[in-house]
Amino acid sequence: MSTATQLTAASSADSSAPSTSRPHSAGSQRERLAAARARLQPVFDDVAQGVVQREVDHELPRAQVQALVEAGFTQLRVPVEHGGDGLDLVAFTELLIDLAAADSNLPQIFRGQIAWVEHLLSLPEGPYRDAWFARIAAGEWTGNAWSETGGTTLGGQATKVRRDADGRWRISGRKYYTTGTIYAGWSDVVAQLTDDATLAAQEAGDAAAGTVTALVRLDQPGVTVSDDWDGFGQQLTGTGTLVLDDALVEDDDLAAFDDRFRYQTALYQLVLLAVHAGIAAAVERDTAHEVRARTRSYSHGLAPVVREDPQVLAVAGEISSIAFAARATALAAAAAVQGAADTAHDRDGEADLAANVRAEIATAQAQVVLSESVPRAATLLFNTLGASGTSRAKDLDRHWRNARTVASHNPVIYKARIVGDWSVNGTTPPYVWAIGTHTAATPAG
Q1: Cβ count near 184 (within 10 Å)
Q2: Which of 92, 139, 173, 203 could form a disulfide with 87 if both were Cys (CB 3.0 to 4.6 A apart)?
Q3: Is GTP-binding set as a keyword in this record (predicted)?
Q4: Considering the entire predicted model, what is its pTM?
């Protein structure tokens, strides 16, 4: 049996095992959320203090990331019996929104770690799961490295995993959009095996054959991480390049890609929805602050002070309404994703399939709405101010840049089409998608 076949067989066996995540009453979740918020709010407040200067100076928030890790932010979804808070996804999303309001870069930095914890929650109890929960409790966490640029074949990966002469796994390749990796001790990397069975399948036209995930320790030879992300928003997420040159991967840290939980795309999108909701909250906060602080008013305005001008207040009210709707929308999407988590123990069962459709559609619907409304709120902010609002020192334009960048991650036009196809025709949405170059053997669609 080839290595790729072994990995696939192991993943199928694991996915049928019962989930050990425990259902919690609403009351216990409220109590756990309150306790976690009380612990984390001082850290969130400290994060917010220097957010403008960090962005102006392009200073990576390394100290802020470390403070969050030390305060247990990476353990919010970890079960209580493993030292975590045991929050469900709705309660967790509340805190993601609060953190995004302080600095929108930070929740996205932890996006790979959030998905990795969710994967661990989907695994059966065992030494590997327990060891990783212990690592997280000790402050270890992982970034993300799934994407590549250039001419990679659609569905394929230029990053390869091979056996060396000593029988150890080695990984080589170049990844981009490696959010969080520059801050983390590990990176969650998607790659392809180079064993004979995999190569034969690829030659037959299956570009995704032998696709695996590899947890790569970053403090080893053959690993280089660069802060070369050049987007105009979310500039401090560390979404740059990871180069791997025969880096070591332990046997236990290599698994078939199909082993991942089904709702992973919905979860990744949920993090971005929380970022959008946090940006909207920050826009509302900064609008109120800037309007209250203005002492000069226009001769053709409607009040002697801007904070009493009905036209300005109407704009502020629209911004506040968008922020309210953004938070409610993100939390509604979180409830749908939690539904998929609740059925993950019965993978491919009728209830699980239905829950995953709801999660995918809900997060896509929310993305379609927030991708328009939150950047709009960030633009409306400037209608409440004069030219002084465009001061670089205030950095108020970061809200629009960050919101627009978040909205660009997963092309919203395709999500709108997918939602429409589901709404009109009942078509099941895709759970995983890829980007790359089409070949004659790779059908479009």
Answers
A1: 26
A2: 92
A3: no
A4: 0.89
